[in-house]
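Following up on my earlier thread - several people asked me to post the actual chain instead of describing it. Fair enough. Here it is, all 319 residues.
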Amino acid sequence: MNRREFLCSLAAGIAASRAGIPLATMSAAEVQAKARVMPKRPLGRTGVEVTVLALGGVVAMLRKPSKEFDPVELANTAIDMGITYLDTAPSYGNGQSELNYGRVLERRRKEVFLATKTGQRSYDGAMREVEASLKRLRTDNVDLLQIHGVGAREDLERWGKPEGVLTALRKLRGEKVTRFIGVTGHESAEMMRRAIEMYEFDAILTTFNPTTKRQPYRELVLPVARKKKMGIMAMKVMGGGVGSLAIGNPIKNDGASNHDEAPRQAQSEKLIRYVLGLPITVAVVGVGSPEELRANVRAARDFAPLNQHERESLEKLMW
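Reply from S.P.:
Thanks for posting it. Predicted structure:
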C-alpha cells in the first residue's frame, strides 16, 4: 500500500475530516479496528475520564520540524490511535513542544485533554507565561494547568500568597482558562508529599518506575494523592531522558541527575504494565519515533497488570 492509498483508507475508516497525516505503518484495517479502544480511567475526582496513555511533550515532540521528521505528524498519529491526553510545558525545547502541539490543536482541540505547566512561582510571572503558552498552543484554554517541577528546596508557603503562583492558577481556573490545576515534580518525594498535603490540587504528575530511586514516590506520595482522590499521572516510566530502562535504548542516560539509569534493562511494554498496575490514572510517555509510539499504544491497549512475582522480579532487576 502506498502513502496515498494508506491515507485514503485511514480517512475512510476513522474520519474523513481528519487533517493529520499519520506516520504509523500499521495497516488501515488495524488502525480502524483499534484506534478507539484505548482504555480510559477517571482523573481523580474531576468527573473526567482520560486515556491511560498520554503523549509526552519531550523527546520527539520538542524537535523542530524538518524534511526528515515532523512532530505534528507524530501527534496526529497518536490521536488517530486513540490517545486523547497531550502533555507539554513551556520549558520543553524553549516553547518548541507547545508550538508543535499548536499546529495540531488549531484543528483538533476538541478531541484531546490538554495539559501544560508553568515554571514560574509568582503571580505575575505565571500569568505572563501562561499567556505565552496559549499563543503557542493556538487555543484560549487548557484542561489542566500545573505548577512545574517542585524542587527539593521549594518555598511552598510562597505559592499561596496573593503574589504567588497558586493565586494565579486559581484565578485562571475561575476564568475558565483552565478546568483543573495540578502540580508536578520528580526531585524530592518528601517535598511533593508536602505540596499536596498543604494545598488542594486536582491532579499530580510525578515519577513512578521500578527503580529504587523512585520507590519513595510510591511509598510517600501515592498514598496521599489517593486519599485526596487526585488524578495521578506517572512520568519517567522508562527513566526519562533517552529512556535507558527500556531495552533498545542507550543504557546510559544523558547524565542529568533527574533521569534514571539501571544496571539492567526491561521491555518497554513491561515498564508500562508495571506503572499502569499502580493505582494511577495516566502514564505520560515521550517517544522518539512512530515505532515507539506504536509499541506503547499496543502495551496500553492490551494492558494486563503484572502479577506480584513479576512486579517483584522487575523491581529486583532494577536495583
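The chain is about 40% helix and 15% strand. That should answer part of your original question.
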